[in-house]
Specification:
heterodimer, A: mainly beta, six-stranded mixed β-sheet, five-stranded antiparallel β-sheet, 11 strands, about 60% strand, globular, B: mainly beta
């Protein structure tokens, strides 16, 4: 079964608002990564947070990780229409290093 | 760097035909991954290589699928014979080291009729 599961499946907001996406997983991990996929394109790596980290920032992105709850969240602040894309979390387990991707959250930012 | 390069970008073929997908990873990257993406199953890892050697092919659906990496700058994924259920977007990705972010190519959209 999928290791990472995102919530919500779809999110629609207005430009300027914040967008929060959540990811839950099942097994112990080395790290958790977030990727963005624009329609018809490949995935783009956004940010990686290690299992011993609790929060990480990159520009308008903020990622948190709670290993006790096996969950992570991705916050995009001051969203723009260009942020419209699907966002995937991917977990790297500690048994071989493969990435397991969730089903993604489809974010729509309306101008 | 041009990023990960995949060819062809689109492929339409008939059931039973052989399909070969190609990938050129980012220079200097020592890991190469092949993924398949469908609406039903999401993004699935098929196989990955380290320094041209296949490490884990447990995601390869069946014997009709094979992958090779003859050198550090080229890999192929072959489906023979192809079936309609193989229709999907196939992504190649590469990375430097296993425990970091992966760089994805634009994908090959395969349609098997």
């Amino acid at each position: 079964s999928q290791q990472g599961e995102e919530d919500p499946q779809a999110l629609s907001i207005q430009e300027g608002e914040n967008a929060t996406m959540n990811c839950s997983y099942k097994t112990s991990i080395n790290n958790l990564q977030w990727y963005r996929q624009n329609s018809g394109r490949g995935l783009v790596h956004l940010i990686l947070i290690r299992s011993n980290e609790r929060e990480k920032h990159s520009g308008r992105l903020r990622v948190t990780l709670d290993t006790s709850k096996k969950s992570s969240s991705l916050l995009i602040t001051a969203s723009r229409a260009a942020d419209t894309a699907s966002y995937f979390c991917a977990t790297e387990n500690n048994q071989g290093g493969k990435l397991i991707f969730g089903q993604g959250t489809e974010l729509s930012v309306k101008p | 760097d041009a990023g990960v390069i995949q060819s062809p970008r689109h492929e339409v073929t008939e059931m039973g035909q052989e399909v070969t997908l190609r990938c050129k990873p980012i220079s200097g990257h020592d890991y190469l991954f092949w993924y398949r993406q469908t609406m039903m199953r999401g993004l699935e890892l098929l196989i990955y290589f380290n320094n041209n050697v296949p490490i884990d092919d447990s995601g390869m659906p069946e014997d009709r699928f094979s992958a090779k990496m003859p050198n550090a700058s080229f890999s192929t994924l072959k489906i023979q014979p192809s079936e309609p259920r193989d229709s999907a977007v196939y992504f190649c990705a590469s990375s430097f080291g296993l425990h970091g972010g992966q760089y994805f190519g634009p994908g090959t959209r395969l349609l098997v009729l």
